[in-house]
Write a structure and sequence with these properties.
binds 1,3-dihydroxyacetonephosphate, TIM Barrel, 39% helix, 8-stranded parallel barrel
Length: 245
């Protein structure tokens, strides 16, 4: 059985006080949840404070990005060992906003994935097609390349740290969710691309306008193992409702 993951990607929102306040409010709302993994991914300046606040609880803390070198003259970047040292256990890699605005490619995604694995960080690798690609009938071709190149050169024991998030770009922040059928179709396709001996174990999350109102029907699909939630993860109440779908 794959344990579901409900992850909140806060993107570039909140200040330190709001971030810590969020964790304090979320903790009692989800303290009884044990059958799914709860993850928040705050902006990097708040990782340590939120991780300290959540320490010992069922709320995990992850980064929204990382760099592939361990250290060096890379102004502005943050490495996997740094993330580990402040209490992070997860990292999102290759979000479509990173690909769109910060020139990330499947090749850099792969380097970041290997850096995360080397330091025992759980990696959430994001894939997804744009509206234009979907309308041209290229969805499966695009996803296949993102998976094949982004997840290249993994050894069998690396896969336990790999999580995939399917986030159709046209559904992110638009209020336009993929239908459960559309999402399931791509999730099943992704699972079919994974090595046979691990495919059944890998969690594939859906992201793109997940809300308390639509999470249940998405999670009812056999290949949807969780959600990567943006806007609706910013308020403890709505995020708790999604967690308790
Ligand atoms: P929204 O839930 O705001 O559409 O964002 C999805 C997302 O990009 C999560 O990583």
């Amino acid at each position: 059985m794959r344990k579901p993951i409900i992850a909140g990607n806060w993107k570039m929102y909140k200040d330190l006080t709001e971030a810590v306040d969020f964790v304090q409010k979320l903790l009692p709302l989800v303290s009884d949840v044990s059958d799914r993994t709860i993850l928040i991914c705050p902006p990097s300046p708040f990782l340590k404070d939120t991780a300290d606040e959540a320490c010992g609880s069922n709320i995990m803390v992850g980064a929204q990005n990382l760099y592939w070198e361990d250290e060096g003259a890379f102004t502005g970047e943050i490495s996997a060992p740094m993330l580990k040292s402040v209490g992070c256990t997860y990292a999102i890699i290759g979000h479509s906003e990173r690909r769109q605005y910060f020139c990330e490619t499947d090749e850099t995604v792969n380097k970041k994935l290997h850096a995360a694995i080397k330091h025992n960080l759980n990696a959430i690798v994001c894939v997804g097609e744009t509206l234009e690609q979907r309308e041209k009938g290229e969805t499966f071709k695009v996803i296949e390349k993102q998976i094949k190149v982004g997840l290249d050169k993994l050894e069998i024991d690396h896969w336990s740290l790999v999580i995939i998030a399917y986030e159709p770009v046209w559904a992110i922040g638009t209020g336009r969710t993929a239908t459960p059928e559309q999402a399931q179709e791509v999730h099943a396709f992704i699972r079919g691309l994974l090595p046979k001996n691990v495919a059944g174990e890998i969690r594939i999350l859906y992201g793109g306008s997940v809300k308390p109102e639509n999470v249940k029907e998405l999670m009812a699909k056999p290949d949807i193992d969780g959600g990567l939630v943006g806007g609706a993860s910013l308020k403890p109440d709505s995020f708790a409702k999604i967690i308790k779908y």
